[in-house]
């Protein structure tokens, strides 16, 4: 009886140890991801905070944000151009994966699975639900609305988030959109935030190279964009400029020339 109790006690300790190791492993992976984002994103986050005391966060702090103001000379300081494509909000609505974004301190809690879901409320308004998996493994979500200001520019607001003016200038501009609405590149007019959105959790090698090219064409610095880990897709965080160059790709991009 004493021996059996002793074995049960040892098994209990072993199970607790395994459970603790599994939890510790999850924490280490999450911390590693956050550290990568901090290091890679520090080149872009600090100037954004210095320039924007009102913290004009595109999505209430759940998805991206930051700045590319330390970009090499030659990158545009003109307002981010809208896509020339006629945007149909009904087609644009639905579920999107964030596959890359310019990071900022408000998003350090998000380590993976950052997504956005858009629902058409009327011809000029869409509902917005942004979510992510936090460093503790929990889901964080925030809801808001986006009002269309022009063909490809909207004003996104989140109730309860301070320093927001519903009547302020647009802060969500679609600068690139695939013909089949499978991929979009968006940001605010000053490029303090930027996001690469896809209907799938990862992109092909050719698509990453195309995204890298389009970001440069739109006046962004691709190295300021950090890839977003997604279940079933990309599993690491690294600058898009490195992601695009590390992957083998054919000379012909898979994405169309739609803009």
- Give the beta-strand count: 9
Main beta sheet: strand number and arrangement?
8 strands, antiparallel, barrel
Instruction: Provide the domain count.
Output: 1
**Low-pLDDT stretches:** 1-10, 16-21, 30-70, 248-254
Widest sheet, order of strands: 1-2-3-4-5-6-7-8
CATH architecture: Beta Barrel
Looking at the chains present, what oligomeric state does this protein adopt?
A: single chain
Radius of gyration, in angstroms, nearest whole number: 21 Å
Structural class: alpha+beta
User: DSSP strand (E) fraction?
Assistant: 15-25%
Text of the CATH class = Mainly Beta
Helices and strands, in order, run as HHEEEEEEEEHEH
Pfam family, one: Lipocalin_2
Organism: Corynebacterium cystitidis DSM 20524
Keywords: Lipoprotein
Protein name: Apolipoprotein D and lipocalin family protein
Protein model, in words:
Keywords: Lipoprotein. This is Apolipoprotein D and lipocalin family protein. The protein is globular. It has one domain (30-246): Calycin beta-barrel core domain (Lipocalin, Beta Barrel), CATH 2.40.128. Residues 1-10, 16-21, 30-70 and 248-254 have low confidence and may be disordered. The protein is α+β, with helices and mostly antiparallel strands and 259 residues long. The protein has helices spanning 2-51, 89-92, 205-217, 240-246, and strands at residues 94-101, 110-122, 125-134, 139-148, 153-157, 172-177, 183-187, 194-198, 226-227.
